[in-house]
Write a structure and sequence with these properties.
heterodimer, A: about 300 residues, mainly alpha, 11 helices, about 0% strand, B: about 400 residues, 2 domains, three-stranded antiparallel sheet, 3 strands
């Protein structure tokens, strides 16, 4: 009985961890280029809504996920134009983006009558030969997006940390003045980073709606975008640490239904608080363990204004 | 700088690069000639296609020009909102009627606006107070929830004699909001924990705790809906003349107090000093930490009072979703009012009118209430973007 619950819990963890992982990865791309991306919650909603809309229209998960990424990137153009073009305060712009997306997705979802429409979802993919193992084989039967998340992480982390282009992107976020002097177009790199990062965040949102819940409800991301923002701080802007953090959050979230299934009597709403409480706890822990703010991009949140040389 | 520069400035809005090459229409606006008049001698002196503009920081702009740009930004925002409304199914001809005539000229609706304005003013002031101390208090909703829970607790457990009940509820609401922001304030000032994340997480936790109460031990035994028992008559904010609720009076008094505190008191002067340059203020002997704590705790207390105004004024009980929409509205009001308490009252009144209109649009045209949030966000985007034209100007470089 207990082993069964443990196994269920572990098998469900990746499903809960993937949205956090992808969203945090997108945010890292964005923030490594020096743009404080608070809009994740909103972009995830856009991804989730467009994913379901495309599922209802075409029924092809791959197309839906791609369209969701494109849609999130398109909406983030507004944010990029505000913070990079017009040098709007990045906190204000990020908040405005979240509220804009919340309003827009709720409105479109209602008018298009996509709310609570069930969609087929995507099938599972067994990782042969590990899935043939006697007891733990079940852990290796996950949906395709879970497996795809790993190469996405490898590709993005490799790009950021091991290529010249990634170095340029990080230079833009670390010291835009120096990057500019070295001939790197700061605004263009930041634009690109925001768009690419937002596409990943949109994918995270689409995963929640298309793969996990298989339907759309207004505001369905429930603060996961904000948790991802906290997760990035927790991971000190490092992709692999973010993946580990996402697994931690996935574990916690996957535990909630397992406890209920095991018949543990807990006050329901206190249980629902745990992801937020854990985020808060993790933020405090990071602050206590901090050693001089390591890992934080030097120019995070600061608009680059060439005319204001220091 | 003169108007032509501003006109060309606004035409360059879409260009991200710090130094832009002028395009036909933009240069045309600068010399007040149409794009078609390129053959004219004035333009021939230097073809518009070759003119170059550099963006530079504007040190100061006359207040009436700033007001003009702000008004233009709000106008653009309203225009976009109108387009969205028409796209969502509201007849274009009805817009003015719904938003102005029905809302402000109808006695009942005007009372509804004033009713709605009270918590709006309070959350707006709460936002303004915290932002003045450079503290991103995004936890207005959580603090509102705790304010309402505090007020409801006094009613639920029948604390104090009837004559003192309302003041006690007031105090409990104030304390509830204040205590809920104390944690993030301590974490931020002691440990440097990002207050954006901490206050938001506390919102979600407060919302879940509210559900725990209204679905659990505080549920009204009379029927099966998730809300607390109805407050008794002496536990509700009374009506003043002509059916106008006293909540608006309370909000007005708090606004006056806030205006005095930030505008006239010594603490307000210190607060401006801290806002401008905290290190300098510290060096000059200003008690920076105390000032920031004070402003942030005031902010939480005001948000708590907003919860009180909704619970004891509008609803007359604790309900499960009363706080929704106030968090962003508070931030929007503070932002549009530039953290000025009196301006916040005015903006709050307009936002309240938007809420009331949104509800009637929901009834008459089946437009979802999320439209209200979308309109608010569009206006924030426009106003935030317009700041660029106040802080920058275009200057011709090279040639004549």
């Amino acid at each position: 009985m207990n082993a069964e619950i443990l196994l269920n819990w572990l098998a469900n963890t990746p499903d809960f961890a993937v949205p956090y992982a992808l969203a945090a990865l997108g945010l890292i791309v964005c923030e490594r280029a020096g743009v404080l991306a608070l809009g994740a919650e909103g972009l995830m909603l856009v991804g989730a809504l467009v994913g379901i809309g495309a599922q209802l229209a075409f029924g092809e998960p791959a197309v839906s996920l791609l369209l969701a990424m494109l849609a999130a990137a398109a909406v983030s153009l507004l944010f990029a134009a505000m913070v990079i073009g017009l040098r709007v305060n990045q906190v204000i712009a990020g908040l405005a983006l979240v509220f804009f997306c919340q309003g827009l997705t709720a409105l479109v979802g209602t008018l298009a009558q996509w709310t609570n429409q069930a969609t087929p979802g995507i099938g599972t993919l067994a990782l042969w030969p590990l899935s043939l193992l006697p007891v733990v084989g079940r852990l290796f039967q996950q949906n395709a997006m879970v497996w795809l998340t790993l190469p996405i992480f490898a590709a993005v982390a490799g790009f950021l940390l091991r290529t010249d282009a990634g170095l340029r992107l990080r230079a833009v976020g670390e010291n835009p003045q120096a990057a500019d002097a070295a001939g790197i177009p700061v605004a263009a790199w930041r634009f690109g980073a925001v768009l690419a990062g937002s596409a990943l965040v949109g994918l995270a949102g689409a995963y929640i709606s298309v793969v996990s819940t298989k339907l759309w409800i207004a505001g369905m991301t429930g603060g996961r975008g904000w948790i991802a923002v906290g997760l990035v701080i927790f991971a000190r802007w490092s992709p692999w640490k973010a993946l580990a953090g996402a697994l931690l959050f996935g574990c916690i979230e996957a535990l909630i239904p397992q406890l209920a299934a095991a018949g543990v009597q807990l006050p329901q709403y206190f249980v629902l608080m745990t992801p937020y409480a854990v985020t808060l706890g993790v933020m405090v822990w990071v602050a206590l363990a901090r050693r001089g703010g390591d890992g934080e991009p030097g120019a995070l949140g600061a608009p680059y204004v060439r005319e204001e040389r220091r | 700088m003169s108007t032509p520069a501003m006109a060309s400035g606004s035409a360059v809005a879409a260009h991200p690069a710090p130094s832009v090459r002028a395009e036909p229409a933009e240069a045309g606006a600068g010399t007040s000639t149409g794009p078609g008049r390129t053959g004219e001698p004035k333009a021939a002196r230097q073809p518009w296609a070759r003119r170059r503009y550099a963006l530079e920081i504007r040190q100061h702009m006359a207040w009436h020009r700033q007001a003009f740009i702000l008004a233009a930004a709000i106008g653009v925002g309203l225009l976009i909102s109108a387009v969205i409304l028409v796209a969502a199914g509201v007849p274009a001809g009805e817009l003015a009627d719904e938003f102005i005539v029905q809302t402000f000229l109808d006695g009942q609706n005007l009372r509804a606006v004033l009713f709605q304005a009270a918590p709006m003013i309070l959350v707006g002031l709460a936002g303004a107070m915290a932002f003045r101390a450079r503290f991103w208090n995004l936890g207005l909703e959580g603090q509102m929830i705790w304010g309402a829970i505090g007020a409801t607790a006094v009613s639920f457990f029948e604390i104090g004699p009837p004559s003192l009940r309302l003041p006690l509820m007031f105090a409990a609401a104030l304390a509830g909001g204040l205590l809920w922001v104390l944690g993030p304030a301590l974490l931020k000032l002691r440990l440097g924990v990002n207050e954006i994340i901490s206050t938001l997480m506390l919102n979600y936790m407060a919302a879940n705790f509210l559900l725990h109460l209204v679905y659990g031990s505080w549920k009204d035994p009379k029927d099966n809906f998730p809300y607390s028992p109805q407050f008794r008559a002496f536990e509700r904010l009374p009506d003043l003349v002509a059916g106008v609720n006293s909540a608006i009076l309370l909000a007005g008094l708090v606004a006056l107090a806030a205006w005095w505190a930030v505008g006239l008191s010594r603490a307000g002067l210190y607060l401006r000093f801290v806002d401008a340059n905290a290190r300098m203020a510290q060096a000059a002997g200003v008690p920076v930490a105390r000032i920031v704590y004070g402003a942030v705790l005031c902010s939480g207390a005001m948000a708590g009072l907003a919860g009180f105004a909704v619970a004891a004024g509008q609803e007359g009980r604790l309900t499960q979703a009363f706080y929704q929409g106030y968090g962003f509205s508070g931030i929007l009001i503070a932002f549009l009012a530039r953290n000025n308490p009196l301006a916040a009252c005015l903006v709050a009144l307009l936002v309240a009118a938007l809420f009331v209109t949104g509800r009637s649009l929901q009834v008459f045209y089946q437009v979802p209430f999320s439209m209200v949030q979308l309109i608010q966000a569009v206006i924030v985007v426009c106003v935030a973007s317009s700041d660029f034209f106040i802080r920058h100007r275009l200057r011709r470089v090279g040639g004549t």
